[in-house]
Amino acid sequence: MAGRKQFDVDEALRRAMHVFWRWGYSEASIDRLTEGTGLGRSSLYATFGDKGTLFRKSLQRYAQTYHPLYDQALTGPHPSPSAVVSAYLRVTLNRIADPAVPDGCLLTVSATQFPALDAEGQAMVRAMIDGLRAMLEQALLAAGADEPEAAELALCTLATNKSLAVLSRAGFSSEDLATVAAAAARIPERPHPPR
């Protein structure tokens, strides 16, 4: 049929997401994107627009795939803030262990290449990170942390999440990554002042 695309657009986007995930924005050349998606340049541009637009669509696809897993893991009740941290980092470890996807995290590799992104890409990366931080804070509050503690633990958990992604790309073993996650979840109980 004339004008009908002869490929699966959703599958092409999934493959483009993996190219950005593996190489990062800077190294995800058009040649790598065409090879990774199986599309010619003209089909790639006609379907997804320029590289910046394709990156943002890939990042959105990544968030739609993985952020609900974090949301589900943080849905309580959790008996303690430590249990929240553990549940969150377990999702990270499971994603890292998945042999069907590149090492690390697309959001993390994108954050490390922040200066190379256009303004829209930078805003999207920051908004996604801030969204995960807010999600963690709410779960920590629900698990009994006070506001300062929830803010601090959310930031530290997010930092641990990002460091796990970086370490996995550097070839650290799953045992090493699990050790980092377990240590991060060992939160000493803080005495709360009487109200």
Protein architecture, described:
The chain has 9 helices and no strands. It is mainly α and 195 residues long. It has a domain at 56-185: Tetracycline Repressor, domain 2 (Orthogonal Bundle), CATH 1.10.357.10.
Features:
single chain; mainly alpha; Tetracycline Repressor, domain 2; 9 helices; 0% strand
Please work out how many helical segments DSSP would assign. Answer: 9
Briefly note the CATH topology name of the domain at 56-185: Tetracycline Repressor, domain 2
Write down the overall mean pLDDT: 92
Q: Which word captures the global form? A: elongated
Strand tally is: 0
Task: Give the percentage of residues in beta strands.
Answer: under 5%
CATH hierarchy class name of the domain at 56-185: Mainly Alpha
Spans of 5+ residues with little confidence (pLDDT < 50)?
Answer: none
How widely separated are the two ends? 72 Å
Helix content range of the residues, please? over 70%
Structural class: mainly alpha
Task: Round the Cα radius of gyration to an integer and report it.
Answer: 19 Å
Q: Outline the biggest β-sheet.
A: none
CATH architecture of the domain at 56-185: Orthogonal Bundle
Element order: H for helix, E for strand: HHHHHHHHH
Name the CATH superfamily classification of the domain at 56-185. Tetracycline Repressor, domain 2
